[in-house]
Design goal:
single chain; about 1050 residues; alpha+beta; Cytochrome p450; 2 domains; five-stranded mixed beta sheet; four-stranded mixed beta sheet; 23 strands; about 50% helix; about 10% strand; Cytochrome P450
């Protein structure tokens, strides 16, 4: 009987609930949205970490153009993305604050953020005068003082490399707010200021949790939850501190009023203004009102300002051209002065304001605001029912392509006056809009401009993470999960000028010394000078020689040097100060140097690699090089490489999935190629899982790229060559930080691998999904072996061995063999293992990243060649999505020719340098290279000799048809060098490139607006395009759909 009554009662309650909500459910069902499940609705979408929830929501929102219905349990939420719909809602008198704001009430009371009706109107009228511009000007001294403290605290980070600026910005903003809102400084509060900031963050997160975890919404459940107890603890601390400050400030304010003989109202902080505010009846704000408004200012002011500053600096670090414009404006306003910032200066910084506005457009601190309709609101497509929650998706509205052309692009010109006029005013509202617009927007804007101007007058910022790598979490305030700014701070140009002037004076004082040294050098290097004078080359200036050719940007240097190859057909002599460099352009002369077992010493310039690569294969010489080369070579034997095919496939498919996010956009493919090649190396040659490393492949690749920039600078700037002077410059500090990143990864790799080894694990620790595992064993010979130079005429090197020549124990991946050899007493130490790991990681990723990026660029520039590659892919794979097998790579004949032709035209290593220790006659006997010179084999030019390659500047994969290669000098194509010091990983590289590029070509067509003639080349150790490898992707249909 009791059970029957309970069932009847439950039925009555459910019927009553349904009956009262039938209108809301009916209208809600007419609004487009994802399928909702019984009872929980779309609640599963909100399960997970904040960044995961935010990502899921963004994915849902991109599927709908104007609005979408989402059910959180029984609660209907309608998200709006269209400015016209938002205008209708915000102008309606039938909306009020959403119920979700009540979750902030225990903390913020009835402040302007939460209150409604007559109380909201009265309090806003009392508070608004406090934010008048004339009052805000009083705070400029405080803004300047704290911004200067911030600048000085950042000085310790100059040159150290990447760091997160969040804590610095947060400290600055909380201290500004404490002083301007409450009238107290950090010395008064001590560590309580930091705790106050921490508790604000905590309460913000708890409020966000209660919004999206719908089971925590009912007060009866929340009251007994752990979240409630945690919230009460933080609120008690914040309220106690705030009440104490209010009472002290109130006492001081009344005392000052009594002493004011003229009766004039005076205040210096916001709390004074609140204490003195009176309505038309002479009634002021209560202590509870003041406490609520003070806490709201502290909450809304700190998090939103810190977030905006962080995002702005991040974006300026990424977009250096925009940062240049900001710096130019700052120079025009302030010159070289260090004076404080005035209000007139604020008005003049128009471009900086546009940058801030554009940051607020792309990354609004409050990504959404919520309203509750008390009556139905009719839009032109549907009606929004009363009782639901309307989410005005500020972030989505401000990225609407109807309002902002190319909305995902960071473009401050969106806020030029003529562009603003053309938009719906509700398309940009980072501070909300209408009657409930943030009263502190002017305060925030002025503070942000002062802090940014102070920072950028002293430092330049640069970021390694691209915008696509931002991991966003939309809690109450939008944030980056990985930190606001991961970047480097370098001194401003003004400080560089001071350094240059000092060096100039230093150089002038030592001119007599230089002249005496030059006379001594001429006498001691008589043999070198006499033989050098017989070599053809452009005339040089006294003392500096041809050093002026090496001044300018990297593309300028490449162009200056390369133009000499048109004036000299075999050999070019260049002097860089006292350094003689001889460039060889003939493959016969290149053979004399590269095939020799005597001339194996790398040039002196390679010493700059030593802090990075130690005595790895690239740098070492003599017996150390020979023994390590002999040990390492078998690890890149074909039988070992066949075992890597599955991992090449897994990583290639992962790269394709990442690139799909760029479809239709213009982007730099080198970022993806770098990340892919690093992660392939980790999982194959190194045998560790990329997921177990503390840093991403992309972060490592970017550090390597920056290291190459520094090494190139040292090669071309004479004054950076001496270590003692280099270490005094900012580049020395930057190098130190980059090496910390690079060595951090390689040390972790070796450490993890040793742990696996000691546990008895051999081979890679990376996991291949079952569906991608294949049997790759076989006895086929591959064309990869056919590009081992010299093999075609019977020459062999240490990679050209038969299967039976490699013992079973030697058939191990690189790092496995290194560790086993070390433990078995081979002549290799732990430090030497790390150095070889550093070398293989550098050579194995940067060269193939460049080669694959050039390949994709050339496919875009030559669609007729791309068509043939795609046809070959379709012939091999058809409409199948299966992974490539080793046998498939044997069939990729045309793809291989395209890769080889890419390496011919754009060899990743454009020059190879050796140091001569004896005089060396060249092929024709007419010239002799002198002992002590640096001889440079010009791979880039040798690959473009017209008597070897017909029409050498044309991209023609048929250059590698067998009939064309059979009679070609085998030193006429040396992208991996040749002879004893040829690249030990060349077969690995070719197999990796085939799998990676075939996977990409099976999924996309490559497009570009640039032609090959538009490529701007720079030879920073590795040949690259100065403008980046910009391409556009177009998804390919399966063969069966064509």
């Amino acid at each position: 009987m009791v059970i029957a009554l309970l069932i009847i009662w439950s039925g009555v309650v459910l019927f009553w609930y349904w009956y009262n909500r039938r209108h809301l459910v009916k209208l809600g069902s007419q609004i487009p949205g994802p399928v909702a499940y019984p009872l929980i609705g779309n609640g599963l979408t909100f399960w997970g970490k904040p960044e995961e929830v935010f990502k899921k929501l963004r994915e849902i929102f991109t599927m709908y153009s104007r609005l979408v219905a989402i059910w959180l349990g029984p609660k209907l939420h309608v998200a709006l993305f269209d400015a016209n719909d938002v205008e209708v809602v915000l102008k309606s008198k039938a909306v009020e604050k959403a119920e979700e704001y009540k979750f902030l009430k225990p903390w913020l009371g009835d402040s302007l953020l939460i209150s409604t009706g007559s109380k909201f109107k009265r309090n806003k009228k009392l508070i608004m005068p406090s934010f008048h511009v004339n009052n805000l000007k009083r705070f400029l001294d405080v803004f300047n003082d704290h911004a200067l403290v911030l600048v000085e605290s950042l000085r310790e980070k100059v040159g150290e490399g990447e760091f997160d600026i969040q804590s610095y910005l947060s400290t600055c903003t909380i201290n500004v707010l404490l002083e301007t809102v409450m009238g107290i400084n950090k010395e008064t509060l001590g560590d309580q200021a930091t705790k106050y900031s921490h508790y604000v963050h905590k309460l913000s997160g708890l409020a966000h949790m209660r919004v999206y975890k719908f089971w925590l919404r009912p007060d009866i459940i929340f009251r007994f939850s752990k979240v409630r107890r945690e919230q009460d603890k933080y609120i008690e601390i914040i309220h106690g501190l705030t009440e104490k400050v209010i009472q002290e400030r109130k006492k001081r304010w009344y005392e000052s009023k009594l002493r004011d003989d003229e009766g004039e109202e005076k205040w210096t902080v916001f709390m004074d203004s609140l204490l003195g505010a009176k309505d038309e009846n002479g009634v002021g704000l209560t202590d509870e009102d003041i406490k609520a408004e003070v806490m709201t200012m502290m909450f809304a002011g700190q998090d939103t300002t810190t977030t905006t500053l962080g995002f702005t600096l991040s974006l300026l670090g990424i977009y250096q051209d925009i940062q240049d414009k900001v710096l130019k404006e700052l120079d025009e306003v302030f010159g070289s002065s260090n004076r404080p910032i005035t209000y007139d200066d604020i008005l003049k910084l128009q471009y900086l304001e546009q940058v801030v506005q554009e940051t607020l457009r792309l990354y609004p601190p409050i990504p959404l605001i919520a309203k509750k309709p008390v009556a139905d609101i009719q839009l032109d497509t549907c009606a929004i029912p009363a009782g639901c929650t309307v989410g005005i998706m500020i972030m989505g509205i401000q990225r609407d392509p109807k309002q902002f052309p190319n909305p995902m692009r960071f473009n401050p010109d969106n806020f030029l006056p003529e562009n603003i006029k053309a938009r719906n005013p509700y398309s940009y509202m980072p501070f909300s809009a209408g009657s409930r617009m943030c009263v502190g927007s002017k305060y925030a804007t002025i503070l942000i401009k002062v802090i940014l101007a102070m920072i950028l007058r002293s430092y330049r910022v640069s970021a390694t993470r691209r915008e696509r790598q931002f991991k966003l979490a939309g809690q109450v305030v939008l944030k980056r999960c990985e930190g606001y700014l991961k970047a480097r701070m370098t001194l401003s140009d003004a400080e560089d000028v001071i350094l240059f002037t000092t060096l100039h004076v230093f150089g002038f004082l030592f001119v007599p010394f230089v002249i005496l040294w030059f006379i001594y050098w001429r006498r001691s290097q008589r043999n070198l000078i006499v033989l050098a004078e017989k070599l053809p080359g452009p005339k040089g200036w006294p003392i500096i020689g041809n050093a002026l050719d090496f001044i300018g940007t990297s593309p300028d240097i490449f162009t200056n040097v390369y133009k000499h190859t048109y004036d000299y057909d075999r050999i070019i002599r260049l002097w860089i100060g006292p350094k003689l460099m001889v460039f060889l352009l003939d493959p016969r002369d290149a053979e004399i140097i590269l095939s020799s077992h005597v001339h194996i010493d790398k040039s002196a310039e390679y010493k700059f690699f030593k802090p990075w690569l130690g005595n790895g294969l690239l740098v070492s010489t003599g017996q150390t090089w020979r023994s390590h080369r002999k040990l390492i070579a078998p690890t890149f034997h074909l039988n070992v490489l066949k075992g890597f095919i599955d991992l090449f496939n897994v990583n290639s498919k992962a790269t394709v999935e990442k690139m799909k996010l760029e479809e239709g956009k213009i982007f730099d493919c080198h970022d993806y190629m770098s990340e892919a090649t690093v992660e392939m190396l980790l999982e194959t040659a190194m045998g560790v899982s990329k997921t177990t490393q503390d840093q991403s492949g992309f972060e490592y690749a970017m550090a390597v790229m920056k290291m190459c920039d520094i090494l190139h600078l040292r090669h071309t700037k004479l004054w950076l060559r001496p270590d003692w002077l280099f270490n005094l410059t900012k580049y020395g500090k930057i190098q130190k930080h980059l090496l910390h990143i690079i060595h951090g990864l390689t040390k972790k790799v070796v450490k993890n691998k040793k742990e696996y080894f000691n546990q008895g694990m051999r081979g890679t620790a990376a996991v291949v999904p079952r569906e991608m595992q294949s049997n790759q064993h076989g006895t086929h010979k591959t064309s990869v072996e056919g590009i081992s130079f010299g093999q075609s005429i019977g020459l062999k090197d240490d990679l050209d061995v038969d299967d039976n020549d490699v013992g079973e124990k030697k058939r191990m991946a690189f790092l496995d063999l290194m560790i086993e050899a070390s433990q078995n007493g081979a002549n290799i130490t732990d430090e030497e293992i790390k150095e070889q790991v550093d070398t293989i990681m550098f050579e194995g990723h940067d060269t193939t990243a460049a080669g694959s990026s050039f390949f994709l660029s050339l496919m875009a520039a030559h669609p007729e060649v791309q068509d043939k590659v795609i046809k070959e892919m379709d012939d091999i794979f058809g409409s199948s999505e299966r992974s490539a097998t080793f046998a498939d790579t044997l069939e990729m004949k045309y793809l291989e020719r395209c890769i080889l032709e890419t390496l011919r035209m754009y060899p990743p290593v454009p020059v190879i340098a050796r140091q001569l220790k004896r005089n060396v006659p060249l092929a024709n006997g007419d010239y002799t290279l002198p002992n002590g010179c640096t001889v440079i084999v010009c791979t880039y030019k040798i690959h473009r000799l017209p008597h070897i390659y017909t029409n050498p500047d044309k991209f023609d994969p048929d250059n590698f048809l067998p009939e064309r290669t059979s009679n070609r000098h085998y030193y006429a194509f040396i992208p991996f060098s040749a002879g004893p010091r040829s690249c030990v990983g060349r077969k690995y590289a070719m197999l990796k490139l085939k799998v990676l590029l075939s996977t990409i070509m099976r999924n996309f067509r490559i497009k570009s607006d640039l032609k090959e003639k538009d490529f701007q080349l720079q030879g920073d150790i590795i040949l690259k395009r100065a403008e980046g490898f910009k391409i556009r992707l177009e998804s390919r249909k399966p063969l069966s759909e064509n």
